[in-house]
């Protein structure tokens, strides 16, 4: 086995991230007092959200996350305060017009059951009076982007899709008219943990391409750490407890509330910050469907390998095959159980979950287009975890030894 890193293999495939197409958001003293309530649900919230970033809103139930989010597209009208998008006050716009320029993705995808997948995705472009050809092309492009084969899925109805697939269509619909800002409210709350992990990875991959400004409400602090460029932690009345990068929030929680909210074991939570991308991958012998078995055997023998990863014609992994199990003249589909596969953006927590469910001790890693980029071993993951935990412990000891100072002085 020879070594390579996800980053170095990636540069050959993907190149630099795309330009930012998102817009900067600014909230100034935004307040919402619901009729008949004594206290405002959102009390003078001021916040800057830079263009092209993902900001995660977290906080206890009822603290005002959803109200804050829905004021950005005026699903809820603020009682007072100003919200601007790239400096433009949202009050200057007609509500319908505004909602068409802001993507909105909610739990379960909330697709119209009587419309096909294509009609659901093309809804907003249709309202914006795009011509039919452009809508059809855009719909196919987006289905491809969210990992659904357009030919297979465009004419299906939502009931003919799994929960994860419906959620993917919901994300495609939110991006359809190429909005600079996308709001998401618990987008992955309704799916099982493995699908959730995959959807999160996909969102990160998509974001690398589209670079929108994404504001996302979640109940799950691990999801916030994984997806957020920044995390906004709110207390009741949408008061800001801390607004910072996940790294800083974990290393230097601003107060006891944040410390409690982030939870104990924040050294362990650092595992949600580390990605498969940070690990050294091993390269293994691969074979493409239809290739000559004799040639593959020779390649494996030369490399001293007994296990081979079989790829399809777009370099996507299909599974492992043992050299001595190769039959016939041409490489066919691998038989048996599906192999463990990890996206390069998966966190080390995700990697552990996936690997513990599999006995082979290694997982195939895929890149931005689901192509094979290498293999990560269980040992590489546990080694990296050990190093991170040790480093976190050393930091904690160093900070408890240090003289009293500003909270910001903490590493
Ligand atoms: N339409 C409404 N009328 C009156 N009060 C409301 C209304 N909608 C929300 N509230 C109240 O405003 C506060 C904030 O609600 P909001 O839904 O924004 O919180 P949240 O942080 O998103 O909560 P959760 O995490 O439980 O979804 C809560 O106390 C809620 O009861």
UniProtKB/TrEMBL annotation:
Gene Ontology molecular function, alphabetical: ABC-type quaternary ammonium compound transporting activity; ATP binding; ATP hydrolysis activity
Name listed for the protein in its UniProt record: ABC-type quaternary amine transporter
UniProt keyword list: ATP-binding, Nucleotide-binding, Transport
Enzyme class: translocase
SMART domains for the chain: AAA (SM00382)
ABC transporter domain location: 25-262
Lipid biosynthesis keyword on record: no
Organism name: Kineosphaera limosa NBRC 100340
Lineage: Bacteria, Bacillati, Actinomycetota, Actinomycetes, Micrococcales
InterPro entries, sorted: AAA+_ATPase (IPR003593), ABC_transporter-like_ATP-bd (IPR003439), ABC_transporter-like_CS (IPR017871), CBS_dom_sf (IPR046342), P-loop_NTPase (IPR027417)
Region (Disordered) residue spans: 390-411
Similarity field: Belongs to the ABC transporter superfamily.
Gene3D superfamilies in alphabetical order: P-loop containing nucleotide triphosphate hydrolases (3.40.50.300)
E.C. designation(s): 7.6.2.9
PROSITE patterns (UniProt xref): ABC_TRANSPORTER_1, ABC_TRANSPORTER_2
